[in-house]
Amino acid sequence: MISEFIASLFAAFVVEPVQADILARLDQAGASVEVLSQSRDCLATTAPILISRAGDDIWWAGSTVVAVATGWQSPAELLDAGNPACGPLATFLTGTEASS
Predict the structure, then answer these.
(1) Are 20 and 75 spatial neighbours (Cβ–Cβ below 8 Å)?
(2) What is the spatial distance between Cα 98 and Cα 65, in angstroms, rounded to a whole number?
(3) Taking the model in full, what pTM does it have?
């Protein structure tokens, strides 16, 4: 029961804002339609994995909330590098972060 509560808080305070931030940054940067499509695929598959992990590992969830909120951790670091849809998105995001 507490893990479900933690997972819902994690979704509200990390996953949803990260999704909104990533899509806004892609739109602002003028990302191609292909990158936008892949980002939606990546976020659709990665979000449930992150939420499940948050419910299973409360310490990871708490530290991730703090790290993302304070800017110590980039949203791109939460993406699954093994997911084929996330590779181009992570590359794009880390490239735009480096140029900022």
Answers:
(1) no
(2) 23
(3) 0.78
